[in-house]
């Protein structure tokens, strides 16, 4: 007997604590550039040029992409993309002009876009332009890896409708006159509202906005309440594949893992997650769901993403703390104090794994350097090694926190800007409302203290944390952990570790890293990727942390179409539908 599909119904999704959708304009700045605003909110309404993830595999889904597969010329420098004639909800056809509008915005305001990296897209273009009403071309300054161009460059583009090409004074033409892009950007950001402000009052205006109500995806925004309840309804003008089955999709804000779990238990949400630490994976395989505390009424689905987890360390801090962070041996000692195996085994109870460097360990691939894999990272957990690093570089580790006793910049001395008598102490701000993360941070604090490093913990609301502790010059934070890291398309380092990159969260600048990153984007050679990641692992510009499923999804037993899980974090609630169980 098979389940009978039901047309319609409402599905409610519980958001991660502290992370309501914060930006609707799909030109998201670095301080808000994350899965929550992009993949679980914006892309339901505004389809990108290319859709990442197909049937659970890390590849492009050509059916769900607005653009067709790029066609390259014989030089390997110019590609042409045909745009499918999908419709915007106001009747306009998605076209080449919509891509050029985006590109002009990116050309002018690139540093304010979260995926921008100086020297790369669009800086590495000789030209771009409209070939026909449904075709655009891109000519690069040299031949790059075609795989990298597709996955890391062209996926940045979200076509924007003509209806958005305006200012407060009326219609504009940034599509054809790049000089107008600045004013149009300022207008659209004003329509979005303050990207840092946490009050939802400006977000309540999004649903009725003549700007944001023009969509080409399967969903449109019906409402966004002061309380943070987001309601989507099907876009009746959607012309792409897979129109929605549901009548409504609701996303509700939560303040803690405990509250979210209570909503699941009460049946008030149909899609939520099991708080980390509540589920046990007895076989040690984090890709498979173990026993479900919610019983047979829910399906347990680990969300394994192509990602790494880390905490940022602030190279731009102008105080003595920043001077200490800029010393490689200090960062190496911090990494040596992080017991990732404890986190994976005890805190995440089998739903975790050690992250050894800048390339995701899972899903398994040949992209991870064998040298890193064999060593378990360049700086695995080793408190004695951490103490030795500090003692060898001018610190008295007989007490905790350690004290600088050999200032200076010579061999065996502490480094520039670290006076004698300085205590080795850092503040660490982390995402509140996550008991598992608090436990992990407490363990890190206790272990670091044994090596002579004082860690002062402070809980901060997640969305406030990422807004205040993002990339930027002379910010005062020292160590910052939002409990996650970065989901890659293709794991080159220009987004995270390139000097000046919009999402270079640690504000790290390193000429050798830039050189190695540049090699990875011009060749598909694994050796280039290995050399880059080995340098990153050694220098520790971030502190790598145990990685785990982004969520242990709990999905109502009668809700279908949720899996397979997208490895990049995108969601397709248009595929979800209810069934009459046992029919």
From TrEMBL:
The keyword Ribonucleoprotein does not apply. Keywords: Signal, Transport. It is found in: Cell envelope. Residues 69-503 form the Solute-binding protein family domain. SUPFAM superfamilies: Periplasmic binding protein-like II. Belongs to the bacterial solute-binding protein 5 family. PANTHER family: PERIPLASMIC BINDING COMPONENT OF ABC TRANSPORTER (PTHR30290), PERIPLASMIC OLIGOPEPTIDE-BINDING PROTEIN-RELATED (PTHR30290:SF10). This is ABC transporter substrate-binding protein. It comes from Amycolatopsis oliviviridis.
